[in-house]
Design brief:
mainly alpha; transmembrane helix; about 120 residues; transmembrane; about 50% helix
């Protein structure tokens, strides 16, 4: 009996993983967001049911370009929601990527290795 042959698993590069993740996130934000429920969220629904929705004040950001998950100035609702979703996703990904880059573990420099070699060993 011969041993079964196995092919070595190819490692997925970080760049490919990031690109595929970005494409999937943008597709979900731009396409699938249009099919989200048009019903009010839980808090808004309860406010309407209990009768205090009319006493609510507008948010200070109610006149922002992306208020109510739409894009100001874009008449087509599907396109308006898609643009808002894509831009919102890009903003979150840029902020998260920047935070990840700022907090990433850095490889030790030759100076760090020299400094560690000079430190006395601790018991």
């Amino acid at each position: 009996m011969s041993a079964p042959t196995t092919t070595p698993r190819r490692r997925v590069s970080t760049r490919a993983l990031v690109v595929v993740g970005l494409v999937v996130a943008l597709l979900v934000a731009g396409v699938a967001s249009y099919y989200a429920s048009s019903h009010p969220d839980g808090l808004e629904h309860v406010a309407g049911e209990t009768g205090f929705l009319d006493s609510a004040e507008d948010s200070p950001t109610a006149d922002s370009p992306f208020a109510d998950y739409t894009t100001e100035g874009v008449e087509d609702e599907r396109l308006s929601v898609g643009i808002a979703g894509v831009l919102g996703t890009l903003v979150v990904l840029v902020l998260a990527g920047g935070l990840a880059l700022a907090l990433r573990r850095r490889t030790p420099t030759p100076d760090d290795d020299t400094a560690r070699a000079r430190e006395p060993e601790r018991a």
